[in-house]
Amino acid sequence: MRLPWQEEEARGGSTLDLLVYRSRLLGADPRVVNWRGGNTSAKAEEIDHMGRRIKVLWVKGSGSDLRTASPGDFVGLRLDEVRVLEERESLSDEEMVDYLLRCMIHPNQPRPSIETLLHAFLPFPHIDHTHPDAVLAFCTAARGEELVREAFGERVVWIPYTRPGFSLAKAVATAVRSAPGAQAAFLAKHGLVTWGDDARMCYENTIGIIEEAERWIAGRRRGRIILGSPWIRAVPPARRRELFVKILPVVRGAVGQKQRMVLHVDDSEEVLAFVGSSEAKRLSQTGSACPDHLIHTKHLPLFVDFDPAQETADHLISKIRAGCESYAQAYMRYIESHKRPGDPVGDPYPRILLIPGLGMVATGRDKFLAMQAAALYRRAIAVMEGASLLDTFTSLTAGEAYEIEYWPLELYKLTLAPPERELSRRVAVVTGAAGGIGRAIAERLAREGAHVVLLDIDIPGAKEVEEELVGRYGEGRALAIPCDVTEEGAVREAFARAILTYGGVDILVSNAGLAYAAPLEETPLEQWRKVHDVLVTGYFLVSREAVRIMKVQGLGGSIVFVVSKNALVASKQASAYNAAKAAELHLARTIAEEGGPFGIRVNAVCPDAVIQGSKIWTSQWREERAKAYGIRPEEIEEYYRQRTTLKVNVFPQDVAEAVLFFASDRSSKTTGGVLTVDGGVPAAYVR
Ligand code: ZN
Fold first, then answer.
1. How far is it, in rounded angstroms, from Cα 634 to Cα 621?
2. Ligand 1 centroid, distance to 290 Cα (angstroms)
3. Which residues are catalytic?
4. What are 570-585's pLDDT values in tens digits?
5. Last residue of a domain, one of 358, 380, 415
6. Which residues surround ligand 1, an ion (CB under 5 A)?
């Protein structure tokens, strides 16, 4: 959404406040500002630590997002000290960064943006640098410079492509100085620089130029089919879903050969129109439109030549596998021909897959980054479409793309980032996730970086866990799905949703439980069956689904059963529970036998005496037992605690810790194992 400047909101703010306000307005429209892209600045007089009046350049720090900008995202630099740099002939990136760090007015500010010098060298008090779709269409058109002249006359300065940094800043400053009437600079294959005398004028100039570019492109649209005739029609939604459920684990396996990825599907109308057009293959294989897209989408997407009217899901699957492999080979050749000594070798697999009739699949280290990659590729589609309306779309060359992708400064930034968590890039399904133990497990796995799919019949409870985990660990990190694990259809649907959201499954923690205790002769058949339904059939159904997906992915997997000490030691008055838990344990061992050759490990955790927060004790059972023992239902837990021969306290977190051990690579050499969590009192060891 494009927002108007509201004078009431801006009035009375400091230079920095107005800069924050302007940045947020710009960031509100993805057609203007990409996620974490663009930077803004303002020049002001401030009082320094010695009480002197000094000129300060406020500029966005590296890594923050304009949409959510706050004063802490900006860095103040001593302007006079920065401006001196313009006199230099050349300046390496390392020297530039080092120099700028010494110009900061406060020691604890974010690192200044790599495009800081662009803001410092231009004389204007307020400057915006953005990468808007419509401007990029001009910047990537083969006759871009001519078209800009035609559309904007002398009001816009054209700057040939140079990698961001000192040279680009100097080139822009020199060109703008010799064009006194100019309102903006268009940077070829990069973006837009605009300015103004005050914050509002700057904002309105930025939006004004973008809207002019948009109108110019729209004028060319009338009566013309943009990207050739629609070639392949979108597959109907229900069939599309079915195909995605089949192919996403294949994609995840194919792109995850070097490192696992999380997937995101985009089958919006605009994406379907693009992938189905006769020009999609040629345009998408031209290359990336601007450095900002490239970091998250790579220079090229993989275009999977699929014709849903003629070919089956199996054809598509083999095309995806072969496509990813030839993509990786081509990527290695790209590295070979551009690499400098000491450069690392990146992941050779695609970040974006385009499939006619189906849409786009984007990949990322986590769900959020996969979503951002998809969002950036949608920007690329808009740019390709705009440039094609104006003229012929051109892109960065492979060499220019490599320079950005393996920019030493970007690589250095990566080394500053915290190391990935143990379960980063993984997807874990936890059943019974709303109960005490399930919650603790979901929390523990999410804390280690996993994306957690929360299955439960208690829908509000599972939703609550989802909200808590998303709030703590970020967007896309948890998903609650209603599921009765005893229903074959519900289990299949839950795993289908996990696939559609993340692309597949790496970890299954089968934890859903149900307890029943009564002497043998008082145990009704109905209760016996119920307990076996949840603890045996339920465990069978979820593992069968998980194993099927894990085998298609070909990335191994880990299954953990939350069993019970009752599987090992029979207790009185729990025939149904004991028998079902023993069956569960033997099921785990069977799956371990079958999964071994595929790298699928299956292990069991056997807790004892965990009562706190457990939901397996149903209210009906509580009432019945309480009546039988002559106590109140709320006393039942204490009653059982008293009765356990060895009084120990085992908490859900203790069980979660054991589950983490088996779920993670810490136990990569162990399958068919049993780990007791009995409070350290030898009551439940394997006999
Ligand atoms: Zn830029």
1. 12
2. 8
3. 577
4. 888 899 999 999 999 9
5. 415
6. 191
